[in-house]
UniProtKB/TrEMBL annotation:
Residues 17-78 form the Heterokaryon incompatibility domain. This is Uncharacterized protein. InterPro entries: DUF8212, HET. PANTHER family: HET DOMAIN-CONTAINING PROTEIN. Residues 187-249 form the DUF8212 domain. It comes from the Eukaryota.
Length: 272
């Protein structure tokens, strides 16, 4: 309303990041841009739920997705700039995995908004950084034919601010829709796996990594990449988080002759 009354551009009241994103989109001939930082009303539970469930489809339908690597400096030596990208926090965040996978075209930008390269052009380096096969990055292979365990492994070394987001950020990668319930903690990841079981007979969901061992101060101890501090029953059928799939990187069969059949049953109480 303030912009309407003063006939000013609402972009002028946005963050510098949003303003710069609009400028580069205009240079490339686009009239509209979507940014999760300003296009989602996070005070509205219904709008937040809709956005979380739809975000992957937004990226998939976009003409291009701009990945802004604010911690990567431009370098005249293209190979050195690509190598520096490996350490970017962008590749360590859970939410950015779907930003990498869903769009047909991703353009990577350095801190000064200069172009580093595209998803297709940098696919070899991106495979080394993310463990996502070049065939999937180049859209030569549909990610839906990649096993559940291998897709989970792509998120194994990524982190989210809230524990629930470890599940919510993967919903689009498994074509799952479920209501976000902030406050449920790690139960969100269990719900995600239950929804995957309802849609798929891919038993690689249970092909989790064996606990790795390493030597510390002369003693051999076991640890996980991130969640070794959590109390967790190793006999549980479901994993507490994507970190448990960290070594499921090779191609796994999505089904086998020993496939389990997941059947939803009802329990009836016997009347006296």
């Amino acid at each position: 309303m303030r912009c309407s009354a003063s006939h000013s551009n609402p972009r002028d009241y946005s963050s510098y990041k949003v303003q710069d994103a609009c400028i580069i989109a205009e240079r490339h001939g686009y009239r509209w841009i979507w940014n999760d930082g300003c296009c989602i009303d996070k005070t509205s539970n219904s709008e937040l739920s809709e956005a979380i469930n739809s975000m992957s489809s937004y990226y998939a339908r976009s003409e291009v997705c701009y990945a802004y690597l604010k911690d990567v400096h431009p370098d005249p030596g293209h190979s050195r700039c690509c190598s520096a990208s490996r350490a970017s926090v962008w590749f360590k965040r859970g939410w950015t995995l779907q930003e990498l996978l869903a769009p047909e075209d991703v353009v990577f930008l350095a801190w000064d908004w200069s172009i580093i390269g595209t998803k297709a052009g940098l696919s070899e380096e991106l495979e080394r950084i993310t463990m996502v096969p070049q065939s999937a990055l180049r859209l030569e292979e549909d990610i839906w034919i990649v096993s559940v365990a291998q897709r989970m492994s792509w998120a194994a070394h990524r982190a989210t601010t809230r524990p629930e987001d470890e599940a919510y950020c993967l919903m689009g990668i498994f074509d799952i829709n479920m209501p976000p319930l902030y406050g449920e903690g790690r139960n969100a990841f269990c719900r995600l796996q239950e929804e995957i079981m309802r849609k798929s007979i891919d038993t690689s969901l249970f092909a989790r990594s064996v606990r790795p061992w390493h030597r510390t101060s002369g003693k051999i101890v076991a640890s996980w990449p991130r969640d070794d501090h959590l109390e967790y029953d190793e006999r549980s059928l479901l994993a507490p988080g994507p970190a448990r799939f960290f070594s499921s990187r090779g191609p796994l069969p999505s089904s086998s002759v020993f496939s389990l059949c997941f059947v939803e049953t009802e329990v009836f109480e016997r009347q006296p």
